[in-house]
Amino acid sequence: MPQENHAKQQTADESGSSGAGPTTVIGVDIGGTGIKGGIVDVESGAVIGDRYRLSTPKPSTPEAVARCVKDIVDELSTRDTAPANGSPVGVTFPAIISHGVARSAANVDKSWIGTDVDSLFTDILGREVEVMNDADAAGLAEARWGAGKDVGGVVLVITLGTGIGSAFIMDGVLVPNAELGHLEIDGYDAETRASASAREREDLSWKEYGVRLQRYFSHVEFLFSPELFIIGGGISKRSEDFLPLLDLRTKVIPAKLKNNAGIVGAALHSAERFNHI
Predict the structure, then answer these.
(1) Cβ contact 157:265 at 8 Å
(2) Which among 33, 144, 205, 260 has most CB atoms closer than 10 A?
(3) What is the predicted pLDDT for the residue at 162?
(4) Facing residues of 25 across strands?
(5) How confident is the model at residue 16 (pLDDT cuts 50, 70, 90)?
(6) Which residues contact 13 (CB under 8 A, 6 or more apart)?
(7) What tens digit of pLDDT does each residue of 190-232 get?
(8) What are the backbone angles phi and psi of residue 129, rounded to the nearest 5°?
(9) 5-9, 82-86, 209-213, 250-254: which range is least confident on average?
(10) Which residues share a beta bridge with 254?
(11) Distance (Å, rounded) from C-alpha 155 to C-alpha 153?
(12) 62-77 vs 117-125: helix axis angle to the nearest 10?
């Protein structure tokens, strides 16, 4: 499976950490186009060293994706900063996850529906694995260490990528599986019109894309009256191109952890689940 260019770590100055500690956990973030992993200090939220990324297999069947995740975990486990052998692994997945089982498959192969993802990855990796929705992982990380830290009330983390993911945070606590990317707006599933992939697919200018986002965020704002919107996903790196185009009552800011948020949240969730922190 071909390796793509590594995305660089947060620097020590950005992350507040300069090396591995005793509470490091591997986090893996599965997306519709790429799967990336990293070693996370779950006391500080820092990603230690380079991330490792591979393309999402096509077709993205459970067996193919599980092998890709294993390749990533195996590579990260060879590093000097790797957690001890047998330490837990946190994994995100772009679907509704209920008790470790995938209940949807919007941007991956439909054969995932009904798959016990926890058990599949645990068997393949030979260690304890905790799986959660990808946007929920980003939201958890942003609430703990990022743009949502110490913000009370409702905070909505919206990830713009292959689809639209969402995390609902209430007073710092995650309410899982809020699928706000699948709201029907103007007769369309929202993510088919306002995701980052829709902008690329239709070759929209930032101004044209801003109109789509305005319609989406205005609707979500009306439904939930949040205190804060946090925008995540790879497109958050270009937030200056579209955030100024939005006219909302609610404050809107880019994710502080940017595209590392899923990895960090997955690692944190697994560490807490298996008392590794």
Answers:
(1) no
(2) 260
(3) 86
(4) 40
(5) very low
(6) none
(7) 999 999 999 999 999 999 999 999 999 999 999 999 999 999 9
(8) -130, 135
(9) 5-9
(10) 231
(11) 6
(12) 50
**Between vectors from CA 42 to CA 154 and to CA 89, what angle results, nearest 5°?**
100
Residue 75, token pair as written in the block = 């590579």
Whole-angstrom CA distances from 85 to 23, 26, 91, 112 are 13, 11, 17, 28
Determine what percent of the chain is predicted with pLDDT higher than 90.
83
Above 60 in pLDDT, residue 2?
A: no
How far is the C-alpha of 162 from the C-alpha of 175, rounded, in Å? 22
The three-state DSSP-derived secondary structure of the chain is CCECCCCCCCCHHHHCCCCCCCCEEEEEEECCCEEEEEEEECCCCEEEEEEEEEECCCCCCHHHHHHHHHHHHHHHHCCCCCCCCCCCEEEEECCCEECCEECCCCCCCHHHCCCEHHHHHHHHHCCCEEEEEHHHHHHHHHHHHCCCCCCCCEEEEEEECCCEEEEEEECCEEECCCCHHHCEECCEEHHHHHCHHHHHHCCCCHHHHHHHHHHHHHHHHHHHCCCEEEEECHHHHHHHHHHHHCCCCCEEEECCCHHHHHHHHHHHHHHHHCCCC
pTM to 2 decimals?
0.85
pLDDT at residue 22, rounded to an integer: 60
The dihedral formed by the CA atoms of 7, 120, 169 and 272, expressed in degrees to the nearest 10: -90
Q: Are strands 24-30 and 89-93 parallel, antiparallel or unpaired?
A: parallel
- Residue position matching structure tokens 């044209």: 208
